[in-house]
Amino acid sequence: MIQHPVFSVAAGIVLLCATSMAAAQSSARSFNPKTSLILQGTYADYSSEAEPAVSGVLLGPETEPRPAGFSLAETELVIEANVDDQFHGWATVALENEDGETAVAVEEAYINTLALPAGFALKFGRFFSELGYQNHVHAHGWDFVDLPLAYRALLAGQVNDDGAQLRWVAPTDLFFEVGVEALRGAQFPGGGDAGDGSNAGVAFVHLGGDIGESHAWRVGLSHLATEVDNRLTGEDTPTAFTGDSDVSVLDFVYKWAPDGNPSQRNFVLTLEMMGRREKGTLTFDPEGTPVASAYEGDQQGSYLQGIYKFMPRWRVGLRLERLRSDNTVANNPGGEFDALLDESYDPGRASVMLDFSNSEFSRLRLQFTRDATRPDDEKDNEVFVQYVMSLGPHPAHQF
Amino acid sequence: MILRSMIAALAVMASAPALALDVFATVPEWGALARELGGGDVEVYTATTALQNVHHIQARPSLIAKYRQADLVIATGADLESGWLPALAEKGNNPRVQPGAPGFFEAFRHVKMLEVPEVLDRSMGDVHPYGNPHIQTSAPNILAIAGPLAERLAQLDPEHAAGYRARAAEFEKKWRAALARWEAQAKPLAGVPVVSTHRDSSYLYAWLGLKEVATLEPKPGIPPSVGHLEKVLEGLKKQPARMVLRAAYQDDKPARWLAERVHIPVVELPFSVGGAKGADDLFGYFDVTIERLLQGAGGTK
Fold first, then answer.
1. Nearest to A202, CA basis, from A138, A136, A248
2. From B68, which residue of chain A is nearest by alpha-carbon distance?
3. B104, B131, B144, B176: which has the fewest C-beta neighbours closer than 10 Å?
4. Residue A174: what pLDDT?
5. For residue A218, what is the enclosing H or E element?
6. How far is B202 from chain A (nearest CA, A)?
7. Alpha-carbon separation of residue A7 from A77, A92, A149, A303, B43 (angstroms)
8. Which domains are seen in chain B, by residue range?
9. CB neighbourhood size of A179 (10 A)
10. pLDDT of B4
């Protein structure tokens, strides 16, 4: 069968067809490489038609809410296999709709070492950073239709960048993991590409364990430091930022399952607190009549969510979110940077969801969100219906 | 603080002599078998209990920490642990026990697999391409695995090889005697029709001659629905069963629902070591299983 996963997009699609044909022909006892295709779509309804801005921050690219009405979300093709006895390869190719055209994005394409000694492992390529908790969770594994507000506002989604990650797990019964990442820094909150192509770094520490049979926990502390060169935000009249951006995240996950058996009932509590500090220069309308100002940004986003599986196949969830900012802009002659200075209230959201999984490969979800993130106290009531289905051997999820 | 704990951890790692072989068993039956064969030469950690559904275990931090330290991982294989063992391998950074390494032992490779599907299609439920992975429910299978496992222990820990082989010989003698006893006791079970919750006892039925006439799950891994239970109920009018079986980790409501309507007993099977009172080791596991089956078959509730 196919020995080497090829990560060009066209080849990826050909590969998918080839693999499924091969699977149909042979008894497919060995899915190698493991291939899965994830199909997802939503129906969304919004009560407000106001522009999706968030007080106190300039939103990065691709942070719009899901389109109103019916829409296909990312169609993800995941291929993974051991390359040989030393390396494991993984690629996630996403097909998505962008302005009416189908865009192809290589979300992840990385190699992970299998046999480094003394508890070390190295990952390189493009991958989701270990910043925070939800950052490494694929869209099909999210507990709500959308990412937490902190991720949307402060990271413009998830940080998946090109680079390398070195991590080490201690040989102790208490789970203790430390790691560092060197990244290109081209992804938000980094930006531009003018540097030496190694403009961001991440460090993380994870601790975790069990309490008795029924309780498990993990706590993480992580930090992203990036040099930003001319990062553009805004649609019609862009604003550019040049300077330093630092993000710190404290995350905590607690899981309960009676006797450690999550099949009938379980509960997952997640708390993340994210802070972003930026210092540098803002330029409004860099290509027209520029207005520049020194800028210091201090924004904090957090969420607390609980997901309760109350019977086989059914889960309910509640997520509460808050964002607050304290920004300083030295020069604001015509109110160009007013969006950053609006401290009249703290943006927030509250979401409830109910989902049903016929099997571990299919999920249907209903979500209601009360959104209060826009300026001028504009509230939005949002309703989502979503499906997430996976074809093929579902890759194992991290804790 | 981080640096200090790292140094402390490294110091522990460097100074601790390898006293015993660290064995990580994915399920209780292999943990128990490793204890029988390894005696004092092994330190056994069992990742799951008989009260857990081994298809759906999360790669918890505590499991990663144990995987990281293991010299030998004993798994059933055949995709039983495919939802979580790969995640442990990815996060556990332990080349000694990577699939393919001598420290990775898959039990299913040493028994004859049942229910290997001709065609793979998820519409048939969560079917396993290698066949039904619940191989521990047949006592002869345990014996088939004990020999190769003892050899693997001997290979990984040559210093104590003689001990592993001696214990394996002793275990085989005791197990053969027990097999003869169980098979004699279980004679009345031959041909007895039963309803299972999940298709997880095929090896047990093949061994003792029980006949599965229905399962409460419409398809493997799909939880029982009222609609399907009604159908099972209807089917039982034509093809009666003597008892409804459920494993210790399974929801008992569907089994009770059906049993009350057709007036047959629900029999809870330990499914593995630790799944019931008295099932404290492999011998006890089969003692309890057969005792409860006999009670169920004899009962006219």
1. A248
2. A171
3. B176
4. 96
5. strand A215-233
6. 20
7. 11, 9, 31, 35, 43
8. 18-113+125-180 (3.40.50.1980), 188-298 (3.40.50.1980)
9. 21
10. 58
The token pair that represents B16 in the structure block: 């601790």
- The residues, any chain, with a CB within 8 Å of residue A345's CB and separated by 6 or more, are A55, A372, A377
Residue B20 has which token pair?
């015993």
Report the DSSP beta bridge partners of residue A203: A180, A223
Find residues 82-101 of chain B whose CB sits inside 8 Å of chain A: 82-87, 89-95, 98-100
Please tell me the predicted confidence (pLDDT) of residue A374. 87
Positive or negative: CA dihedral A357, A82, A181, A120 = positive
Q: Phi and psi dihedrals of B242, rounded to 5?
A: -95, -25
Q: Chain A 232-271, CB below 8 Å of chain B: which residues?
A: 255, 259-264
What local confidence, expressed as pLDDT, does residue A308 receive?
A: 98
**Model pLDDT, residue B299:** 55
How many CB contacts within 8 angstroms connect chain A with chain B?
156
Cα–Cα dist A353/A319, whole Å: 9
Extract the residue ranges of chain B whose pLDDT is less than 50.
Answer: 1, 13-17, 300-301
Nearest to B100 among A85, A170, A207 (CB): A85
Question: Do A380 and A45 meet the contact criterion of CB atoms below 8 Å apart?
Answer: no
pLDDT on residue B122: 64
- Residues of chain A numbered 278-297 and touching chain B (CB < 8 Å): none
Contacting residues of B for A361, CB less than 8 Å apart: 122
Full-model pTM: 0.87
Per-10-residue mean pLDDT of chain A, 399 residues long, equals 38 41 38 83 92 87 89 91 89 86 92 93 96 93 95 94 96 96 90 75 97 95 94 82 95 95 92 96 86 92 97 95 93 85 87 92 95 87 95 73
Q: Which of A263, A361, A399 sits opposite B122 (nearest CB)?
A: A361
The CATH class, in words, for A9-391 is mainly beta
ipTM: 0.85
3-class SS of residue B16 = coil
**A176 contacts A298 by C-beta, under 8 angstroms:** no
B9 contacts chain A (CB < 8 A): yes
Residue showing tokens 């930006």: A191
CA distance B225 to B159: 55
- A178 touching chain B per CB within 8 A: yes
The model's pLDDT over B148-171, given as tens digits with 9 standing for 90+, comes to 999 999 999 999 999 999 999 999
For A168, B10, B45, B81, B126, the CA distances from A119, given in Å and listed in that order, are 5, 10, 19, 22, 34
- Cβ contacts of B130 on chain A, cutoff 8 Å: 29
Separation in Å, CA of B217 to nearest CA in chain A: 12
Ramachandran class of A83: left when φ > 0, alpha when ψ lies in -120 to 50, beta otherwise: alpha
Tell me if A263 and B56 make a contact (CB, 8 A cut-off): yes
